[in-house]
Amino acid sequence: SSVEQQKAANLSKHQINSKTTTMRVVALLSAMVAGASAFGMGSTSSFTGSQIVDAPTYSRGAPAGRANLEMMRHRKKLAKLGKPADQRKALLRALTTEVIRHGRIKTTLVRAKAVRKHVDHMIELGKRGDLHARRQAIAWVYDKQLVHSLFEAAPDRYADRQGGYTRVLRTMPRQGDNAKMAVIELV
Questions:
Q1: Which helix (DSSP H) or strand (DSSP E) does residue 104 occupy?
Q2: Closest CA to 83 of 70, 97, 93
Q3: Do 120 and 166 form a contact (C-beta atoms < 8 A)?
Q4: pLDDT 10s per residue in the chain (187 long)?
Q5: Are 172 and 186 contacting, i.e. CB atoms less than 8 angstroms apart?
Q6: Are residues 185 and 169 in contact, defined by beta-carbon separation less than 8 angstroms?
Q7: Residues of 14-43 as b/e, b for ≥16 C-beta within 10 angstroms?
């Protein structure tokens, strides 16, 4: 009889444990449902009682689920020429040197437009003619003797001109890759 009493006591403990476990699960599920409904579409605000409506998203190019980080390219007109900064600078210096040396070179249209600014600047320095301008030109142009000849010829050649020392002429596209080509020449 004591064994039966012990079995009955264990059975009642088990029933109590299963009841409390069931109550805990039900409480957890109801809390999850309440939490999910607070963040769901069309739920009511706890402050005003009115419905919460998601604001419309205005994204032009961003895929769904991603933030739209498009920015406008204001004042970013620099032609990168498909090169890192150090290689781009070396290319522009070399092209500037060759335009001043030969008076006219054939290159791609984008490179010709990019180097035009630097060639014009070197001629402006040559027209100025002071020591600081000479040192600035030597720092950019690869050939020192070329700088000296530029500083001798530029004031006479471009005395009546206030800019626009180069001309970019479009030519036929390149045979291999159909790249737009141009001739840049000193005026």
A1: strand 104-108
A2: 93
A3: yes
A4: 666 666 666 656 656 667 777 878 888 777 777 766 665 555 555 555 556 555 555 555 555 666 677 888 898 888 899 999 999 999 999 999 999 999 999 999 999 999 999 999 999 999 999 999 999 999 999 999 999 999 999 999 999 999 999 999 999 999 999 999 999 999 9
A5: no
A6: yes
A7: eeeeeeeeeeeeeeeeeeeeeeeeeeeeee
The contacts found for 31-34 with CB under 8 angstroms, 24 or more apart, are none
pTM equals 0.61
Distances (CA, A) of 75 to 69, 71, 79, 120, 125: 18, 12, 12, 21, 25
Scanning the structure block, which residue is given the tokens 């002429």? 169
On whether the CB atoms of residues 112 and 183 are closer than 8 A, the answer is yes
